Write the structure tokens for this entry.
Amino acid sequence: MSDAQIIEADFTWVDGAMASGVQIEVDDSGRIVAVGELKKPTTHRLQGRALTPGFVNAHSHAFQRGLRGKTERFGASSGTFWSWREEMYSLVQTLDADRIYELSLLAFREMLAAGITCVGEFHYVRHAPGCGDFSLDEAVVRAASDSGIRLALLLVYYNTGGIGQPLDAAQKQFATSSPSEYWKQFDRVAAMLDSSTQTIGAVAHSIRAATMADIAELHAESRARGVVFHIHVEEQRREIEDCVELYGQPPMSILLDRLEIDERFTAVHCTHTDPLDMELFIGRGANVCLCPVTEANLGDGVADVPGMLADDAHICIGTDSNSRLCMAEELRMLEYVQRLTEERRGVILDEAGACGMRLLGFGTEAGARSLGVAAGAITPGCWADFAVVDLESQALVGWTPETLLDAFLFGAGREAIAGVCVGGQWMETVHGD
Amino acid sequence: MSDAQIIEADFTWVDGAMASGVQIEVDDSGRIVAVGELKKPTTHRLQGRALTPGFVNAHSHAFQRGLRGKTERFGASSGTFWSWREEMYSLVQTLDADRIYELSLLAFREMLAAGITCVGEFHYVRHAPGCGDFSLDEAVVRAASDSGIRLALLLVYYNTGGIGQPLDAAQKQFATSSPSEYWKQFDRVAAMLDSSTQTIGAVAHSIRAATMADIAELHAESRARGVVFHIHVEEQRREIEDCVELYGQPPMSILLDRLEIDERFTAVHCTHTDPLDMELFIGRGANVCLCPVTEANLGDGVADVPGMLADDAHICIGTDSNSRLCMAEELRMLEYVQRLTEERRGVILDEAGACGMRLLGFGTEAGARSLGVAAGAITPGCWADFAVVDLESQALVGWTPETLLDAFLFGAGREAIAGVCVGGQWMETVHGD
């Protein structure tokens, strides 16, 4: 709770343009109630600043921030996603509640410094080594509360160590024994949340980590409860091969056959998804979450983004492993990899041919849709979640209202973020810590 | 000229590692004279800071900083390198000496803020509209002097508007009428330079912009003078097609046949170079300059970096269009695009399997080699050119001496750069301007 506010920055991103003279009225619950030329006394005048919707990070594993700079040395030959996973599992084995709190707080604070105001935390390390009490759930929620970021906690069901395989040692820290145990703990965690900044969603980690029967049961219950449902899908070719071997079809295909997929469903990665499966998936109104920097770091492969766009996909963005936290870099990376492989400029475009505008939507509104949070736009009914852009930033010199968005997305980074606002609470960016 | 200095930071990058307790002795000419545990009284103690060699930017067109945020809107369909070039030519037509000074100063200052201490400025807009007096040469030199960056001015010969084509209107601002006129002005510009921070090299813009006879003549003279020689090579497929049509072979092939290419030669881009030509080129000891962010922005295509590495290429890095200025982002972009297309982690590795170490070499020593400048390493004989890394940066939290370099290159950006030193002159980074 905070006081009601009338906010005015030099420029505010409203209806797809940088507008001046715009006031934003925020009520004491932290929601936007009016936007426009309100002619009310301004309580918060942001000089030399522009406001955009805060970025929405639809897919994060916060604790992996602890791997920064630690996974880039290789032996005689290259590494793979799977060799990286071994390094990640080594970190997992050091995580108790204190350590996951510490790493999560670090990641969430760094997200805020990068203009990310809402995170979908795909939380799967739920137990300290040797324990089975879900004590890490509370630690992650507490880290989010203490950081001030808006949290969509995506609570993960993990039950098999590969398709038809038992859990290995590190994976025991991820374990939930059954869907009924899952929902029991889900309700316990839901009761811990601060409703003004925290929501919860359901997750089956991947087709590797749960039986199809369990995935179907979890998803049906998530629909009954009206909560979002996320799952990793087809990031690596080996997952597809294993799935075809056991089930006779790839993960996306089997999910489409067995589940009532709708707009509350998000498939994360889809790097190697068959175009026809993708078309069907998008046709259900579901979301695709791409994680450009992590997918690049892990050498996943190049997703068929032009195909997704042709079917008018809802594409949102995750920082995933948090190897780097910069939403502008995520967005341009996504576009740039497509430009390189297509050998043309401007692949991800809106109807008017604007690349930055479309990308901004991925990093804001589409993320909010995937997480089921009223955010991602500066409009009445949404939470007052903003990124504050420093108009004096050296990277932006030469901007005009028309070029500012593209100058930021293609030419700047988190050094141009001066702060954020989450539900009416202002935080200044400190790049040093 | 400055006073002699004994510098000590918490950590200093020496011999491929972050070492503590290292002093750097710099003489009053701005050169490093000793590095190690010198046991001398420290004059400059940098607390909470690490020093790396300043980044060397081997290929820049500083004035293109003026396009930031202005080339990312498209019509009904995508753009290309060639449609982008039209936008760039429109900017060129507004450039007089004042305007190119202003844009160059902006770009050079932003480079310094990003830890780049030396720039190879591939300078081809040499006249104001309607003039032919090379008045823009002095403006660029002055901008470099006023910014404090080390300049390797790469003075460009441009004489044809395409292979066998006359110059079009915008290109007239690039024109030099003959090699003899070129060298006359080369000598005039060389006389303007400050020898402690400025050098000069020779350039034929590309096989599009000069006849083979002129390129051969210019290159032979550059060798006689012992200056470096740079040229754009095979960035776009159309250049190759046009060249094959007129000369019966691609640009790299004809350059290899006609020129005595040696270690002072740098080919910029080589995006579509035939592997056998590349092997021959590398065999001559020559340099390849890649411009990862610009090549991505322009949709050039994916270069065969593994092939270059197999032949032990000298690869350096340019920020080229300066659409974004961040050397860490350039370096990880280069590696990441390869990871995505190869579907493996760790493509660019040194002998010990270290990715960041190899990348750092591209962004420092290899650039200095390409520009013929004594820089790129913290070692006696080199200029005292450093990037100052802020060890308190939020993006680096969790660093150890072993992980710091990778944490910076993969996990941070210019927000972690606290300042630079160029030839013994210290500058603090101001991210706002």
